[in-house]
Amino acid sequence: MASADKTNTRAAPRGVRPRQQAPELNVRLTDGTAWSLADAHPRSFTMVLFYRGKHCPVCRAQLSELNRRLDELAERGVDAIAISGDSHEVAVKTVEEWGLDKLKVGYGLDEDAMRRFGLFVSAGHDGEPALFNEPGLFLIDPDGVVYYEALTSMPWGRPRLDDIVNGIDYVVKANYPARGEA
């Protein structure tokens, strides 16, 4: 096991929590357009999936599944976007090489935005970007309020899309409140 690097001793900010207004989020998309969370008006939720970047094979599997299942989410009133700190050039290659023909892919997420959302931030090594966010998945309601979030500090441990879809079915039907706000 790798030893802990104790050089970074500053406390990480908490980020946003359920039942709080989501932080401002504006990104460029690989198709040349701009996307803003403030302009998102889904029937049920906006799913914001923060991925590590093109260097991550686990992200490739997750985004590929999400791309395949976008119609299933749309039927539930969920709009999805995947965002990383990758550059425009790298993000375009990601879309092309991973076959992401339906998924909106945003790029250029900066460290400040990563921290506002409470994402874990890693210093890269061995061909990784100098700094990148670890995975995070948010469901944000039509009013821009965080309903659900799942954060991981490693590439693994992400929620399964089946669990998210089944959860959305339940919470919409039961008008179930957001949890984790206390």
Describe this structure in words.
With 182 residues, the chain is an alpha+beta fold. It is built from 5 helices and 9 strands; from the N terminus they run βββααβαβαββββα. It has helices at residues 57-68, 70-75, 88-98, 111-116, 161-174; strands spanning 26-29, 34-36, 45-50, 78-83, 104-107, 121-123, 131-133, 136-140, 146-151. The strands form 2 sheets. A 7-stranded mixed beta sheet has the order 2-1-5-4-3-8-9. It has a two-stranded antiparallel sheet with strand order 6-7. Strand 8 and strand 9 (146-151) form a beta hairpin. It is globular, with a radius of gyration of 16 Å.
Protein traits:
182 residues, alpha+beta, 27% helix
Provide the fold topology.
Blueprint: E1 26-29, E2 34-36, E3 45-50, H1 57-68, H2 70-75, E4 78-83, H3 88-98, E5 104-107, H4 111-116, E6 121-123, E7 131-133, E8 136-140, E9 146-151, H5 161-174
Parallel strand pairs: 3-4, 4-5
Antiparallel strand pairs: 1-2, 1-5, 3-8, 6-7, 8-9
The share of residues in helices is: 25-40%
Secondary-structure class:
alpha+beta
Extract low-pLDDT stretches: 1-7
Please give the number of β-strands: 9
Characterize the main sheet: 7 strands, mixed
End-to-end gap:
35 Å
TL;DR?
With 182 residues, the chain is of the alpha+beta class. The protein is 27% helix and 22% strand.
